[in-house]
Automatic annotation (TrEMBL):
<protein>
    <recommendedName>
        <fullName>LppX_LprAFG lipoprotein</fullName>
    </recommendedName>
</protein>
<feature type="region of interest" description="Disordered">
    <location>
        <begin position="26"/>
        <end position="51"/>
    </location>
</feature>
<feature type="compositionally biased region" description="Basic and acidic residues">
    <location>
        <begin position="285"/>
        <end position="294"/>
    </location>
</feature>
<feature type="compositionally biased region" description="Basic and acidic residues">
    <location>
        <begin position="42"/>
        <end position="51"/>
    </location>
</feature>
<dbReference type="InterPro" id="IPR029046">
    <property type="entry name" value="LolA/LolB/LppX"/>
</dbReference>
<feature type="region of interest" description="Disordered">
    <location>
        <begin position="268"/>
        <end position="294"/>
    </location>
</feature>
Length: 294
């Protein structure tokens, strides 16, 4: 598999963290996993509830399960090159606690999120990049979010953040695309819109930056099971505008990166037991990451 350049990888991680792969979906299909049927139009699927009502309730229906197994796929393409990041583990859908094993470029990274702190156990070959020799690094997601509010960047992938997007849908109609099996489970696929202002959570400058980069809304695909829980969530985005925005020199030839992020949830109610690594094995790199700014 071809490698994406360092700048492309930075853009990928930036977008994956800030938007969790949030995408402008313009009729893109799924990523090939599962079997789809023909589109089903705007019919209702649960008594008298409309398609829009079903989709808007999906976030709460999924949270009621409390926990789930999670698979994450981030696929990036830049100037004809591709890189794929995969992850699998468990997540507490309510408080965001998670444990993932992430694979990219032949490397494996163990990641934990506990009480808004993100921990990663890096391979030895990567530890020197952040100036530490301990096996674990720690990042305060709250501090990173504050830095993102000032710079428009965020460099950490937090799967719980993507889950929140399903609770920030616009009041517009949802579109029922069709049905599909995911790991043997029958699902209904929908195309919906995420409100950029909701993503900014009251931060007006951040909302303005997101609108400039992505427009007023972010199209998203959701696959719901027969209990209206989210089984798959998918975003696509073209990072060309993001890259040029991040380049302080105003590059005349910004590198175009296309990013697709897919999250799949299964085994709802699974046990999630995640704790921070020992403090003596951990280096806090929050300041280094915020100062690097990409």
């Amino acid at each position: 598999m071809a490698r994406v350049s360092r700048r492309s990888r930075t853009a990928v991680v930036t977008a994956a963290g800030l938007l969790a792969g949030t995408a402008v979906l313009t009729g893109c299909g799924d990523d090939g996993n599962g079997s789809a049927s023909e589109p089903g139009g705007e019919e209702t699927r649960d008594g008298d509830r409309s398609t829009t009502e079903v989709v808007r309730a999906a976030h709460e229906e999924t949270l009621e399960a409390e926990t789930a197994k999670l698979e994450l796929r981030v696929r990036a393409a830049a100037d004809g090159e591709q890189q794929t990041i995969t992850g699998n583990g468990v997540i507490d859908l309510v408080d965001g606690t998670s444990r993932l094993t992430i694979g990219t470029g032949g490397q494996k990274i163990e990641q934990r999120v506990v009480e808004q702190d993100l921990y990663q156990r890096l391979p030895e070959s990567l530890r020197g990049q952040l100036g530490g020799d301990k096996p674990w690094i720690k990042v305060d997601l709250g501090e990173i979010a504050l830095a993102a509010g000032g710079t428009g960047e965020l460099q950490i992938t937090d799967p719980a953040q993507a889950m929140e997007y399903a609770g920030a849908l616009t009041d517009g109609d949802a579109e029922r695309v069709g049905t599909e099996k995911i790991d043997g489970v029958e699902t209904t696929k929908y195309r919906v819109e995420v409100d950029v202002d909701e993503l900014a959570r009251g931060d007006n400058p951040q909302a303005q930056r997101l609108r400039e980069q992505l427009g007023d809304t972010l199209p998203m695909h959701l696959w719901l099971d027969d209990e209206d829980r989210i089984r798959r969530q998918q975003f696509d985005i073209d990072l060309g505008a993001v890259n040029s925005t991040q380049d302080p020199q105003g590059s005349k030839n910004p590198q175009s990166t296309a990013l697709r992020t897919t999250l799949e949830f299964s085994d709802f109610g699974t046990e999630v037991d995640v704790s921070p690594p020992p403090a003596e094995d951990t280096t806090d790199v929050t300041d280094k990451i915020t100062k690097r700014g990409g």
